[in-house]
């Protein structure tokens, strides 16, 4: 099993390598890929050194799977070239997510859709992934009518430059390189990605469209407000869900507890609820603060937290690769 990690020197690529190593992914050859400026750099994986190569070299090496996290433009250009060479691409960018001919996969929710013919598979947006893991079992049992979500997103989702901006500001350096239009430390920015014509941001529209595609149900109504906060470790979400059918809060908690990939942290008597600090470097989605919305019938409030670089990106991609392998789809 030859695995290429495209964007191996980036924030998500680095976590992909860590996750492949931790989960003991059965690879026989690792091909780290980055831009020309990084070619020849050494990457350590399982105690061995691997040299970074460029795209052309990687394609010629015909990897079985390429995990891509090198930006949308790079994916649009190179994913088809890998696919033509017989490689199955799992792409973390937004390039292919809403393409009707490409599958958008969260293994706990819709891995069953995958077939041997899927040569470019899309990994969803980080905020969407953690939400749908919790929504799916609830939709199956109570039928979701509408979701209202507000996010509290980590700066790591923007990349290295954003982490540097926040850390600089924390040290009082206010004239360093800026990843955001405003100071992020000691602040909250109600804008993630660019604004669209309808007044929503691209990130908000991704949550709306991707949720329906992954859940395979265009009737689910979703509205979102996505917000950047000065936090590392993970994204948090306040989620309000209206169902067609009534539910029992204890049943919802038990359903969350039984769902693969979810850890229920919901013990208010002992002040236990999910927080990004605790989700950091974990592969699971953490759910808590489950309670009835007393202002609306059949409606629930919950709080969902996950490490956006792990389940929101790298872990989800590696889990897709594991599924392909297990089902002999490559
Ligand atoms: P490099 O480090 O050589 O620039 P991040 O999102 O954290 O900035 O990381 C982006 C990743 O994508 C990096 O590993 C970067 O490599 C890689 N990358 C960017 N453009 C290309 C390209 N045209 N070909 C290959 N890798 C690229």
UniProtKB/TrEMBL annotation:
UniProt EC number: 1.2.1.11
Give this protein's Gene Ontology molecular function annotations. Answer: aspartate-semialdehyde dehydrogenase activity; NAD binding; NADP binding; protein dimerization activity
Q: What are the UniProt keywords, alphabetically?
A: Amino-acid biosynthesis, Diaminopimelate biosynthesis, Lysine biosynthesis, Methionine biosynthesis, NADP, Oxidoreductase, Threonine biosynthesis
What pathway is this protein a component of?
Amino-acid biosynthesis; L-lysine biosynthesis via DAP pathway; (S)-tetrahydrodipicolinate from L-aspartate: step 2/4; Amino-acid biosynthesis; L-threonine biosynthesis; L-threonine from L-aspartate: step 2/5; Amino-acid biosynthesis; L-methionine biosynthesis via de novo pathway; L-homoserine from L-aspartate: step 2/3
Protein residues bound to NADP(+)? 9-12, 37-38, 177, 308
Q: SMART domains, per this entry?
A: Semialdhyde_dh
Q: Which reaction does it catalyse?
A: L-aspartate 4-semialdehyde + phosphate + NADP(+) = 4-phospho-L-aspartate + NADPH + H(+)
Where along the chain is substrate bound? 153, 228
Q: Please state every residue range assigned to the domain named Semialdehyde dehydrogenase NAD-binding.
A: 2-117
Q: Which residues bind phosphate?
A: 97
Q: Where are the active-site residues found?
A: 126, 235
Alphabetically, which GO biological process terms does the record hold? 'de novo' L-methionine biosynthetic process; diaminopimelate biosynthetic process; isoleucine biosynthetic process; lysine biosynthetic process via diaminopimelate; threonine biosynthetic process
- NCBIfam families registered for this protein in UniProt: asd_B, PRK14874.1
Family membership: Belongs to the aspartate-semialdehyde dehydrogenase family.
- Quaternary structure? Homodimer.
- What is this protein identified as? Aspartate-semialdehyde dehydrogenase
